Amino acid sequence: MITNTDELKENIERDGGAIFALDKSKGISSQRAVQKVKYWARDLTDNKKIKVGHGGTLDPLATGVLIIAIGRAFTKQIDTYVAAEKEYVASIKFGETSTTDDAEGEKAIVHVETIPVRDAVESVTEEFIGDIKQIPPAYSAIKINGQEAYKRMRRGEEVVMKSRRVHIEVIDILSYDYPVLKIRIVCGKGTYIRSLVRDIGKRLGTGAYMSDLVRTRVGVFTAQKCFPLTAFERIIK
Q1: Architecture per CATH, 86-218
Q2: Range(s) for CATH 3.30.70 in the chain?
Q3: Which of 69, 167, 198, 211 could disulfide-link to 78, CB 3.0 to 4.6 Å?
């Protein structure tokens, strides 16, 4: 596994590309992060047509492991890496819902008569472990008739998302102090953590949205083995 920029440069110069993990920061889209890497790779190789791609998009408010591929031969392989098991740490805000199921959307207060105790929260989260059916967020990049669902939503169109089967291996409660719950999730491909959070809130009767998300692992790529975005400043020759 590539662990430093010098090694990454050697791989690109020798093999024409590489696959590695980037630590995506908050407030930047996955696509914008890829563009920064692409400019860096163009400068390094003097190849303006060099192919750079990513897998497993993270929303702008999410941070953590983002798989990046440089070079056409490597971008073709990226789906194999993205299909691997993933690990997240999510913060959940109870007592409110969001139109986007995260902190970006419009909020609505949910009046909660009885605050759920930790045992109740643990019992509900356990219901979501295993193979489950999940409805993805309407504000997502899933394509409906050829166009991303979130674009249709922003135009005011009615969007009906179909449920899909996903697998959740682990949900661990890291901390709980109502209205905030922090959990660790290990899951398979296609799982939307925003949907999981939304559904936990529904089941508890509190409503909920995802207030923070960190992806800590994708397969063998962990947060500790990621490149910071600052490593890809433009090369001045």
Answers
A1: 2-Layer Sandwich (3.30)
A2: 5-84+220-232
A3: 69
Quick one: residue 190, left, alpha or beta (phi over 0 = left, psi -120 to 50 = alpha)?
A: left
Nearest-angstrom CA–CA distance, 199 and 177: 19
Kindly report, as residue ranges, where domains of CATH 3.30.2350.10 are found in the chain. 86-218
Distance CA 121, CA 222 (A): 28
Report whether CATH 3.30.70 matches the domain 5-84+220-232.
Answer: yes
For 140-185, write each residue's pLDDT tens digit. 677 777 767 667 767 777 777 788 999 999 999 999 999 999 999 9
Whether the link from the prior residue into 179 is cis, omega within 30° of 0, is yes
**pLDDT above 50 for 237:** no
Please state the φ and ψ torsions of residue 186, each to the nearest 5 degrees. -115, 125
pTM over 0.85: yes
Instruction: Of 72, 63, 49, 56, give the one whose Cα is nearest residue 229.
Output: 63
Can you tell me which residue has the tokens 């994708």? 218
Q: List pLDDT tens digits, range 198-222.
A: 999 999 999 999 999 999 999 999 9
Non-local CB neighbours of 114 within 8 Å, separated by 6+ positions: none
Q: State how far the alpha carbon of 156 is from the alpha carbons of 63, 138, 150, 152, 159, in Å.
A: 28, 12, 10, 7, 9
SS3 231: helix
Q: Which residues are catalytic?
A: 59
